Amino acid sequence: MERRIHILTRAQLLVLMVFTLAGQFSISITHICGFLGGGLWLAKARLTRSRVRLHWPLWMPFAAFSLASILAVLTALDPLRSFEHLKRLFEMVIFFWVLNTLADPDLRNSLQAVIDKFRRTRPAQLFKATRGADASVSPRNFFIGLILFAASLSALTGLTQVLQDGLSIHHRISGTFSIYMTFAGILMQTALVAAAYLLFRNKKNAWVWGALVLMLLALALTLTRQAWLGFGSGLLILLIFRKPLLILLLPVVAALLFWIAPAPIQERVTSIANLDDVTLQERLSMWWLGWAIYKDYPVTGCGFHCLLEVRGDYPEYKNLARPYRTLHSNLVQLAIDTGAVGVLAWLFLWLSYFVAAGRQLKSGDDPEHRWVVLASLSAVTAFLVGGLFETNFYDSEVVMMTYYLMALPFISLRDRI
């Protein structure tokens, strides 16, 4: 039995490492590793049920939203077409898989051999919970390091795209992703994780500074305004907890960055305040269309993927430039897909997360735990703020990263080092 446990632990470690790295490069590999990793976790939990205590924080809001989604499918205009969306519910398993895997004491022993190879490098400082040659290894910090490393490579890829093809609103960089919005959504969150580490853990770590600079440059060059707003909201949270007076410097820094920014970035920034901006007007039209659809299907919505099916019933919105599949807002999209039931369940999930993460923040003054909680809080806040203007909840890569970062504060305190 001990041998089987050892094999399962090594397999979990390998799959989670591939999952963490592949999240920046291949959605197919990420999905495969997610399903495989979840299976390995459950298999080991069953094998060691007398030794391992599983943790299920937020299970009730996750279950509530799952039930609301199933109800939306059952009452959809086209249940078969809507049913396809339910596969996204399996992405929620990432939250529990990451949480329980990184809290597993057996994984720490397997990971030690990997960390020892990097102990003398600068990046290894992020993986240590305490200083000194005999410092313990934190699986949580190790995998955060992998996230930042992969995001840096993706950001570097995006910067090379600018050098090769230039930059304009009609040609935005996408890094290692298929579309710039996904790229920006990932950079927005991972840059906040790096910022949290530098603000609350170790401001002298040169490689994390380098990773942050790469990610911020790439994020700026995506020309994605909702991601900029998301990052700004997350950074605001970090500064409030670090030193509120630093917030006063933000306008000065923003003005300086605007002054030295290339013309495409300046144009996108100024367009935020332009009420006549074409994309803003189009979004407003989308949201009014969403409101009209919601009023006709208020309780459980018209089902997932119903927008193209029902939009013909609202000819007053035929001015939309093309047949969009989403309405560029999580709340609006969920309102027409799942109705009031789904929206309330969705809001319940995030409210529950913030309450639970806030409790973790108040659980002690340990800086090793505090910076991770703040990193998670800022990244999730950025996701939600960006999602007011984009349907990033329907973007698998971004959602999987969100669930991953959501899990980090809830790793068992007795297993945290």
Provide tags for this entry.
417 residues
Set out the fold topology.
Elements: H1 2-22, H2 27-47, H3 59-74, H4 79-83, H5 93-102, H6 105-116, H7 124-127, H8 139-165, H9 180-200, H10 206-221, H11 225-242, H12 250-260, H13 263-271, H14 278-296, H15 307-310, H16 330-362, H17 367-386, H18 396-407
Helix pairs in contact: 1-2, 1-6, 1-8, 2-5, 3-16, 5-18, 8-9, 8-10, 9-10, 9-11, 9-17, 9-18, 11-17, 14-16, 16-17, 17-18
Molecular structure report:
With 417 residues, the protein is mainly α. It has one domain (2-415). Helix content is 67%, strand content 0%. Helix 1 (2-22) crosses helix 6 (105-116), helix 8 packs across helix 10 (206-221) and helix 9 (180-200) runs antiparallel to helix 17. It starts with a helix and ends in a 10-residue tail after the last helix. The model is unreliable at 129-134 and 413-417 (pLDDT under 50).
Which overall shape is indicated by the principal axes computed on the Cα atoms?
globular
Q: Please state the average pLDDT score.
A: 86
Radius of gyration of CA atoms, rounded to a whole number:
22 Å
Largest sheet: none
How many angstroms does the end-to-end distance come to? 27 Å
Give me the oligomer status.
single chain
Strands, total number: 0
Total number of helical segments? Answer: 18
Spans with pLDDT under 50 lasting ≥5 residues? 129-134, 413-417
Helix fraction by DSSP (H/I, runs of at least 4): 55-70%
Number of domains: 1
Question: What class, by secondary structure content?
Answer: mainly alpha
Q: Helix-strand pattern, N to C? A: HHHHHHHHHHHHHHHHHH
The proportion of strand residues reads under 5%
